[in-house]
Amino acid sequence: PDVGGSYLLARAPGRLGVYLGTCAARMGPADAILAGFADVFVAQADWPALIARLCRCDGEDAVAAALRPVAAPPPAGRLAPLRPEIDRLFGGADLRAIWRALAEDTPFAAAARAELAAVSPLSAACTVAMLRRLGPLPELSTALRQEYRFAHRAQEHADFLEGIRAVVIDKDRTPRWRHPSPDAVTEAEVAAMLAPLGDQEWTGEEAP
């Protein structure tokens, strides 16, 4: 997660944020609302009417009033029924514990294990650590600072360049991550990626 993504993931109910952040799972409209990434659903057929109303808006109250007539119940999502299983399987304190829990013999566990096996183990482990440090009531500045620390070190010490090679340059979709599996990342490696940057630490002054 970057550009404040960890802030939103940390605020998601239960362990949804950990699941979404480590498995790169896609969200439908209802899922996005449940996880706190969206507020309302507007069907595509109603977009022209909404745009016309928004063009006449002046202030936050007017925007809310413009949304009200076109906001609709979203199509059923997939995450709400999975909440108990997600909370149980992704409740571990680190990526190793989550990886072990996903050995459970259920369709969701098998699918999530396959998703997790495809992503960078170091990135996933750092995501779990970021969200654990932020807690359910995170501060945006803290989230951005952690993300900046990871991004600052990503090209040299993480899998960022290999991911670009596999997806953008060679397009072979077979990245060779630095770690062979999610349970191979150590806490020391995670701590090193998220450690303070000294005089290069992000202070927030560059933010708009």
**Considering DSSP H and I runs of 4 or more, what fraction of the residues is helical?**
55-70%
Oligomerization state of this entry? single chain
Our measurement of the CA-to-CA distance between the termini, rounded to an integer number of angstroms, reads: 20 Å
Overall average residue pLDDT: 93
Which terms would index this structure?
208 residues, globular, 57% helix, 12 helices, 2 strands, two-stranded antiparallel ribbon, mainly alpha, single chain
Layout of helices and strands, plus pairs?
Layout: H1 5-11, H2 16-23, H3 29-35, E1 41-42, H4 47-55, H5 60-67, E2 71-72, H6 79-89, H7 95-101, H8 107-118, H9 121-134, H10 140-157, H11 160-169, H12 187-193
Antiparallel strand pairs: 1-2
Helix pairs in contact: 1-2, 1-9, 2-9, 9-12
Can you give a write-up of this model?
The chain is mainly alpha-helical. Helices cover 57% and strands 2% of the residues. It has twelve helices and two strands, in the order H-H-H-E-H-H-E-H-H-H-H-H-H-H. The chain has helices at 5-11, 16-23, 29-35, 47-55, 60-67, 79-89, 95-101, 107-118, 121-134, 140-157, 160-169, 187-193, and strands spanning 41-42, 71-72. The chain has a two-stranded antiparallel ribbon with strand order 1-2. Helix 1 (5-11) packs antiparallel against helix 2 and helix 9 crosses helix 12. The longest helix has 18 residues, at 140-157. The two termini are 20 Å apart. The model has no long low-confidence stretch (mean pLDDT 93).
Give a quick precis of the structure.
The chain has 208 residues and is mainly alpha-helical. It is built from 12 helices and 2 strands. The relative contact order is 0.14.
